[in-house]
Design brief:
The structure is a homodimer. Chain A has helices spanning 2-24, 117-121, 178-181, 185-194, 244-254, 271-282, 302-314, 330-342, 358-368; strands at 33-34, 40-45, 52-56, 59-62, 64-66, 69-73, 81-88, 91-93, 101-104, 107-113, 131-139, 144-152, 165-169, 202-205, 264-269, 289-293, 318-324, 348-352. By secondary structure, chain A is α/β, with parallel strands linked by helices. Chain A folds into 2 domains: 27-121, Immunoglobulin-like (Sandwich), CATH 2.60.40; 131-222 and 237-371, Alpha/Beta hydrolase fold, catalytic domain (Rossmann fold), CATH 3.40.50. In chain A, strand 5 and strand 6 (69-73) form a beta hairpin. The interface between A and B is large, with 93 and 93 residues.
Chain lengths: 374, 374
């Protein structure tokens, strides 16, 4: 076996000689480089460029040309996950030295994490990891098979315990990938569970676009992408919220779950908050924990008021409404809370800093998950 | 509910007004555009650029500036999956109008599919889809938990049938993502099974880098990427091949599988072919189907010859060696076949066109999977 290993190594040399080294090279520049003081240095080899800068969630970082390699360093940054790109002579591109990108609707950007408190929580640590599965469930209500992300906590496969289920919904333009890719939900759940802050639970991340069977790249449209919100809705088709029973049925039929109200939670961001409002109202004896992240409901109709009161009578342990003070939806969220006050529906309200951003939604998940199923 | 839907739509307008439209726009250019004659048009908005071209597996396509948008069209292309990027004034970037990329070792490129025979096989079709799970198995041999991709065929969750298992290994610099991302293994298996060409089976895609717990981005190194082949191997650590028993144990303990030799297959490409050679030899009563894609073994030692003969005596239904005529490993593969001839070990040899490429490996998988478990 040692001999074979040495053979493998020598073959890599052969492969390199055959011109495959381009695959294996990160280019001449290390970028991004997170420095001990939490500043970040960006580098780009572009000898012929006239100007270059890095722009993104860390702000704008001017870069200067040193022997053909442009380089710039940010100030010390808060521990967080940041998305960014380069602008070179007016042209935007991702960092060619960084293999990591995330997609937010149709925007694909380079990404890095500054370690520390939040950055560590969003990172893969030396803790037991849950499994992440992409499965297809049947939705008779929507008339199609649809894709679902299921996180099962570490120990699920090898044990026989039953787990509570947390349904987690994305916003407009998102899909069943968003909470994993932009929300770092697997890392957050792994770390919260390992730290004893959240109980082990199954997290189910749905695709809330009724016209779409799966996320971009995983549907029959393959590599022909169109953001979900620009699709024409078929007038005769049910809404995603109407079809939520199909999701619950699939999960409870196929996973070892505690199938009772005290073991079900639902939360969503933005459009997903509106869906969370609608689902918790329309299935009023289903969830003990409800979270509306940066979004709201609308209960002007008597029928909806009655459903909310039915839910209240059935008992809800937590109905959390949380929104950033700079969020463009805040006035509508406040209007919804006035409607809840009118019918004396109890809820918990949290106003945070910031706006309608994944930075907030990661924090909201981090705060919400530890309060479930206790 | 209708009202809420209308509210959602109006909120998208509000969000757009608040400057989030950048997320939802694919930019002014449709690119790439696959035309009815299988030519492909590339477009890039770069008003200030002096030159632009598209380069990749489809060859080089010159682009011309029309009112600030560079455009160029390839000749008609064979139905296939293609990776490409743009070169603008000497700077390489991915197509900003295309949200789809794949990573090959440390090279991230834009990707498209030209439909037709192979392109359709590599695409998501209107057929039942298997589940794809990323799970963590315990490897006592390597002293760590390690990440594994498991494809379970459509119907696995809802049924109680037991399935055969096909272990599929990547090459140097690859990982447990490669066969899915570059190899389109989930699409190929879905389509072969739905078409009745392959029997329903579980496909297990391992990470063959003994020093690595998981693919780039999914290990404790998080977004600090270093290709696996440049790592220092710890001298005291077992090889991946030595640890393969841990993979089999995890799979057979946790999935509904037929746990006998006639229901196990193994194949790998390049470094994975060398590992397939070693594993099938060192576990000589384990696999009825063995595939070496663009790679070979080495049986100069008497001990290894004996193991090969043991395997032969136990019975192997298919020992396939397949390699492209332009592959830099072909002379070594031929040398291995001479060694097999010397000990009269039966195998099947297939020489194809092409070289050491994913294009070939997708075709090899397409040809190999239908021959298993029949």
């Amino acid at each position: 076996m040692k001999k074979l290993f040495i053979l493998c190594v020598s073959l890599m040399g052969v492969a390199a000689a055959f011109g495959q080294e381009a695959l294996w090279s990160k280019g001449p520049s290390k970028s991004p480089q997170v420095n001990p003081d939490r500043s970040v240095t960006f580098r780009l080899a572009a000898p012929d460029a006239k100007s270059a800068k890095a722009v993104g969630e860390m702000g704008e970082v001017e870069m200067a040309n040193k022997d053909g390699v442009w380089e710039g360093t940010s100030g010390p940054l808060e521990s967080e996950l940041y998305r960014y790109s380069f602008i070179v002579d007016g042209l935007e591109l991702n960092d060619p030295s960084n293999v990591y990108t995330t997609r937010d609707v149709s925007s694909v950007k380079s990404v890095f994490i500054v370690p520390g408190e939040k950055g560590d929580l969003y990172s893969i640590q030396d803790v037991p990891h849950g499994s992440v599965s992409k499965v297809w469930y049947d939705s008779p209500t929507l008339g199609m098979k649809r894709r679902l992300t299921v996180y099962t906590p570490a120990g699920y496969e090898s044990g026989d315990e039953k787990y509570p289920v947390f349904y987690l919904l994305h916003g407009a333009g998102g899909d069943e990938e968003s909470w994993m890719e932009l929300g770092r939900a697997a890392q957050i759940m792994d770390n919260l569970i390992a730290g004893g802050k959240a109980v082990p639970m199954i997290v189910v991340i749905t695709n809330g676009n009724a016209e779409q069977e799966a996320a971009a790249g995983y549907s029959r449209e393959n590599f022909n992408y169109e953001p979900a919100m620009f699709r024409q809705r078929r007038g005769d088709r049910a809404l995603f919220t109407d079809s939520f029973r199909d999701v619950i049925k699939y999960v409870e039929d196929n996973y070892r779950v505690k199938a009772d109200k005290s073991s079900r939670a639902i939360a969503g961001l933005s459009m997903g908050a509106m869906q969370t409002f609608a689902i918790s109202k329309d299935y009023p004896d289903t969830f003990d924990y409800v979270g509306l992240f940066s979004g709201m409901g609308e209960i002007s109709r008597a029928e909806d008021k009655q459903k909310m009161l039915d839910m209240q009578n059935n008992g809800v342990k937590l109905y959390l409404i949380i929104c950033g003070k700079d969020d463009f939806l805040l006035p509508r969220v406040q209007n919804y809370m006035r409607q809840l006050d009118e019918i004396k529906f109890p809820y918990e309200w949290r106003e945070t800093g910031g706006g309608h951003t994944w930075r907030n939604w990661r924090e909201y998940l981090t705060g919400f998950a530890p309060r479930l199923f206790k």
